[in-house]
């Protein structure tokens, strides 16, 4: 069972490759390395004992994509490749629409032409209208509020249209909530380039002394301690969800949508306290203005994935923070610390 993983050297894709290999799938990764490192391939081999095939390619290169599908006998695609920074998408919307929408269009075309009609797509909780009342279930009306979220919503619509035109397609749209954590080995994890936008990588960089303090965006929200609440999910739980969604595609046709979250929310202060407990360090922070576009609470209703895929998150917040911390401590400069780690190919 050969599967193509676009964006497979990225944060969520790399964890999913490990899960796929452990479940007996043969993996071909296609990634342009715009936000990841080739070192990930060595780390996957170190963890699983198997080296995935790697193609240094771009979804925007239609010819390259056709070649990939002609050379490899691919049964299904797990499609992670995309740009993901909400703030950046506001400043460079065309870059986001081109990469995320045109890229998926090219991929779907190459799949259609070679008869590969199974896809698991990385969608996001950002497709929900933030005016809705959490927890969000899959029927909650959509209304992405920024260009990044709209690329996800557009791709979801494209997938529905594709299936309506050709009912041989089986597609799973997975809406992730807030993926955090790292592989328990400490060998792979999230490696943001430049100043982190998200809470967890920001906190860990404060913990290792790379950043002086955390800015907490707002302490006057209508939550138990005034700080924003999110549904954090361990990236390994997320990876397991992908394998179950993929296996499910072999049993059915159509488009299925699933929230992947825990259904349990934690505030920024609770995250800070958990990291302080685990690391034994005090995390300096300051309360600042609310971040534009943020909502007070974002929470999944994960029941559909439990009922239909038999999936539910297993790892708790302590495990998420412990694994994140292990990765950060072992790799203070992310994958560019690689030379200090002995990895054989
Ligand atoms: P990531 O940036 O770590 O991984 C994405 C990978 O795609 C990178 O390795 C990058 O080099 C590659 N890529 C980007 N554009 C490409 C292109 N045109 N051709 C080939 N490769 C390309 O991001 P991630 O956190 O692993 O996210 C994976 C997917 O999940 C993305 O689609 C993202 O939008 C979605 N998602 C992420 C989160 C999150 O919080 N991390 C939440 C919801 C949804
Ligand atoms: N947050 C914060 N300081 C930061 C980054 C994030 O206080 O440096 C808060 C943010 O306002 C939100 C929560 O942490 O309440 C999670 O933010 P993140 O960007 O990680 O995820 P998202 O907002 O995309 O759900």
Listed once per kind, the bound small molecules are: nicotinamide-adenine-dinucleotide, uridine-5'-diphosphate
Low-pLDDT regions? 339-345
Distance between the termini: 23 Å
User: What strand order characterises the main sheet?
Assistant: 3-2-1-4-5-6-11
Indicate the mean pLDDT.
95
User: What is the H level of CATH, i.e. the homologous superfamily of the domain at 2-182 and 232-260?
Assistant: NAD(P)-binding Rossmann-like Domain
Radius of gyration: 19 Å
The fraction of residues assigned to DSSP E strands is 15-25%
Shape: globular
- Secondary-structure arrangement, i.e. CATH architecture of the domain at 2-182 and 232-260: 3-Layer(aba) Sandwich
- Please identify the structural class as seen in this structure: alpha/beta
Helix content: 25-40%
Number of helices, where a helix is a run of at least 4 consecutive DSSP H or I residues: 11
Determine and state the CATH class of the domain at 2-182 and 232-260.
Alpha Beta
């Amino acid at each position: 069972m050969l599967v193509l993983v676009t964006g497979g050297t990225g944060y969520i894709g790399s964890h999913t490759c490990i899960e796929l290999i452990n479940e007996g799938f043969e993996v071909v990764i296609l990634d342009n390395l715009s936000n990841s490192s080739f070192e990930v391939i060595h780390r996957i081999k170190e963890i699983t004992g198997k080296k995935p095939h790697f193609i240094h390619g771009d979804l925007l290169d239609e010819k390259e994509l056709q070649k990939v599908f002609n050379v490899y006998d691919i049964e299904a695609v797990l499609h992670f490749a995309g740009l993901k920074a909400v703030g950046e998408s506001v400043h460079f919307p065309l870059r986001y629409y081109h990469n995320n929408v045109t890229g998926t269009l090219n991929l779907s075309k190459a799949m259609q032409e070679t008869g590969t009609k199974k896809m698991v797509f990385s969608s996001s909780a950002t497709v929900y209208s933030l005016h809705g009342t959490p927890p969000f279930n899959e029927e909650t009306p959509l209304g992405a509020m920024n260009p990044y979220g709209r690329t996800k919503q557009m791709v979801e619509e494209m997938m529905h249209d594709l299936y309506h035109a050709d009912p041989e397609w089986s597609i799973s749209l997975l809406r992730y909530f807030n993926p955090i954590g790292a592989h328990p080995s400490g060998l792979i994890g999230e490696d943001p380039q430049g100043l982190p936008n998200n809470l967890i990588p920001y906190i860990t960089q404060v913990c290792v002394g790379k950043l002086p303090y955390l800015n907490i965006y707002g302490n006057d929200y209508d939550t138990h301690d005034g700080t924003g609440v999110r549904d954090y999910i361990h990236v390994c739980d997320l990876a397991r969800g992908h394998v179950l969604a993929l296996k499910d595609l072999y049993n059915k046709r159509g488009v299925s949508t699933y929230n992947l979250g825990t259904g349990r929310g934690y505030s920024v202060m609770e995250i800070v306290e958990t990291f302080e407990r685990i690391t034994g360090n005090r995390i300096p922070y300051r309360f600042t203005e609310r971040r534009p576009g943020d909502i007070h609470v974002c929470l999944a209703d994960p029941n559909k994935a439990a009922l239909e895929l038999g999936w539910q998150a297993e790892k708790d917040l302590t495990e998420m923070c412990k694994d994140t911390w292990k990765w950060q401590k072992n790799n203070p400069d992310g994958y560019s610390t690689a030379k200090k780690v002995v990895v054989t190919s």
